[in-house]
Amino acid sequence: MVVAALGAMSLCNEQASAQRPAPIAGEPATRPSGTLRLSTESACAAPIETRQIAVELSNGTNSAVSWYIDGVANGNAAIGTISADGLYTAPEQPGSHIIRAVSQADRSASATTRIEVNADSGFKVAPGSATVPEAGRQTFQGTACSVPSANVTWAVDGIPGGNETVGTINSDGEYSAPAADGSHTITATDVSTGVTGNATASVSSGISVNFGSRSYRNYPIRSGILGVNHVDWLPSQTDMGLISRAGLTISRTYANVPAVYATKTPNWSQIDPKISELRAEGFHVLLQLAYTPTWLQKSPNSCSSGDTQTAPANDATWAQLAKSFVAHMDANFPGVVTDYEIWNEPDGGGLCGDTNKLNDYLAIYSATAPLLKQQAAADGKTIRVGGPAVSYMSATWIKALTTGSSTAPYVDFVSYHNYVGGSSTIYDTWDTYNGYTPLYALTQSTTSGPAYLYAYASRLVGAGKQPLGAGTPIYVDEYNTNWMFTKDCCRDNPTYAPIFNALYVTDLLDTVYSGASHVPGEFAYYSAISRPYFCLLGDWDTNMDCALSSSTAPSPYPQYYAYELMASTSYLSLNSGGWMASSVSPVASGSGLAVTAFFTADRDSILIVNPTGNTYSETVNASYLGFAAPVVATLYEVVGGKAINTTSLPLSQSGATFSAKISIPAYTVMGIAIK
Q1: Domain boundary among 531, 548, 579
Q2: Are 445 and 543 within one domain?
Q3: Which of these, 93, 119, 413, 521, has the minimum number of CB atoms within 10 Å of its CB?
Q4: Residues 519 and 390 in one domain
Q5: How many domains in the chain?
Q6: pLDDT, tens digit, 9 for 90 and up, residues 436-462
Q7: Angle between helices 450-462 and 496-509 (to 10 degrees)
Q8: Which of 288, 390, 523 has the alpha carbon at shortest distance from 401?
Q9: In a shared domain, residues 524 and 380
Q10: Distance between CA atoms of residues 192 and 196, nearest Å
Q11: Of the candidates 572, 568, 628, which has an alpha carbon nearest to the alpha carbon of residue 598?
């Protein structure tokens, strides 16, 4: 997300408000003399597909309209664009978008419609795949444009209604799995059109993890892998300490270049106090070097006057400013700033008004990155330099950065952002189809979900020319349900927020079992606090507004507990660093349990996420632990988004395998630590 200055939470909110659907300035609150109506041949579009929006005006003569997408005049690349005559071109990323037309003759006359961008916008079976326990159940739906179809017939492996061998399915789409492992094809047929769609049901027996005797070390996990954006925005060092006590000790923090260099003489008081507080609480910093002081801006500014989110008039001069940050941090906070990220969301608002964002960014990077590396070497320090911190996983931007002769040699990490729901503001539920693709399905999509995008990024980075090649760390250093500063079904929700965040981490870690070269180098949740609905800490209220007041101690929000479970040495200890387990089953496949596992210096850990409304009774089998018996296991559960329950877990042993039977409630995040 784009912000112009350190600590400028209100500014961030103002920008997001300008992007989401909102009343258009200057609209009179009078009854319109004419009525607008919008229509389209389909409420769905595939990425980059076009849809013609027709305008009908009753009781009026001038049908000319002004167009807005998610509140942005004519839209943009991230949310789609629309021409003067109503031709909508979908963006590359999936999501739901509100299109609004306002009469130019009478601005009180307006109408809205919604377009859902989805790679699978035709008739399909949802979920497209599911992991089902033996003798367990899973409901499938036939959907068209994310609306459940009313008249559907079902078959399993081509057998109408299925049978005991392959599993049965009733007229409501409820599949009952057989009592044996296997993979089965679920087919739905829309009776009215004859169109069919397929899904896969993978039937599994229990949860199985092989820790490879702790000698399988193909996929290392970097210490501090789970981070947070803008811990420095918290109002006190005490609040920062609450984040670090959850095991989260990386803060992605703005360098505040425009304020430090408000004049040509740096004023380090604009950044040092926050870095000092972060250091005191044990944080390392990923420092975002971005934006342009007023005196270094082009004239005229391609953005609004004085807007710092613009390319500098002279890249070499800006690079010198960036270099001075390395010198200053090395001298005053040695070892605290470990990573320098050049710019933030240059593909969007980070280079606002720019007509050639990619070329301008590459010029900034090629001028800056070598100087940062030179300064660190002169200081006897080691730093990582990277980017492009794009607003979504853009193949074009990542390819350009990692293959360009003036940029690739200086790329130590590649970063991108991932807001799973795009700009959609209409999530009613986590997992119900009612005219939109619910967040759960978007998260698990095999064509656009977080795991798919990360695996794609891994392939792109592997083909690059940067020094570490395929081993170059990839930072997903902003992510959340969507980037809008409005409520949705699941952000901050006591039930769904822990699930979404634990599932996000689980899915990306598990990509190494399906071909990714390594796990992410960094996850950075957005954010520690950014009002009104992005936070780990805040003052609870009925609206889930994460404001902090000076008179009350902050309370952890539901997602805090998911991160504490994963990161803290009191629980699974992921942030201590370690290695992925040799194998895990089941790996998330559409709907169903999602499991990942890893080992650190002193424990073997299993993370279990149940994102469904089903309760499972499962046997957990952990093999080749690498510890001499006896071993002790502890079971953890995030309860109500308010606490982590801890219980002893008895294990039975058969050879190299230790087993336990556990109940996994619906919509639950659980963990097991074995020592």
Answers
A1: 579
A2: yes
A3: 119
A4: yes
A5: 4
A6: 788 998 899 888 899 999 999 999 999
A7: 30
A8: 390
A9: yes
A10: 11
A11: 572
Q: Which amino acid is at 622?
A: A
Confidence of residue 13 (pLDDT cuts 50, 70, 90): very low
Which pTM does this prediction carry? 0.86
Grouping H, G, I as helix, E, B as strand and the rest as coil, residue 439 is helix
d(CA 40, CA 60) in angstroms, rounded, equals 21
Which residues, 6+ apart, have CB-to-CB distance to 388 below 8 Å?
342, 343, 346, 347, 361, 365, 397, 398, 401, 414, 415, 416
Residues counted in the chain: 675
Which residue type sits at 636?
Y
**Pair (231, 113) in one structural domain:** no
- Is 130 inside a domain boundary? no
Give the number of other Cβ atoms within 10 Å of residue 580's Cβ: 24
Residues 237 and 351 in one domain: yes
Q: Domain range holding 65?
A: 9-117
Burial profile 94-110: b = 16 or more Cβ within 10 angstroms, e = fewer: bbbbbbbbbbeebbebb
3-class SS shares of the chain: helix, strand, coil, % to 5: 25, 35, 45
DSSP state of 345: -
Helix axes 450-462, 395-403, angle to 10 degrees: 20
Domain CATH code at residue 96: 2.60.40.1080
Tokens in use for 642? 């308010």
CB atoms within 10 A of CB 495: 16
Q: Give residue 148's pLDDT.
A: 85
CA dist., res. 215 & res. 233, Å (int): 41
Q: Clarify whether residues 470 and 437 are in a common domain.
A: yes
Our CA angle for 364, 368, 369, nearest 5°, is 115
Residue 318: give its domain's CATH number: 3.20.20.80
Q: What is the pLDDT of residues 261-312, one digit of tens each?
A: 999 999 999 999 999 999 999 999 999 999 999 999 998 888 877 789 999 9
Does residue 640 lie in a domain region? yes
- Write the burial class of residue 384 (CB in 10 Å: 0-12 exposed, 13-18 middle, 19+ buried): buried
The DSSP letter of residue 533 is: T
| Cα-to-chain-centroid distance, residue 37 | 35
CATH of the domain at 644: 2.60.40.1180
Cβ-based neighbours of 453, under 8 Å, separated by 6 or more:
393, 416, 418
Q: Are residues 338 and 454 in the same domain?
A: yes
Question: Per the domain annotation, does 447 fall within a domain?
Answer: yes
pLDDT at 519 over 70: yes
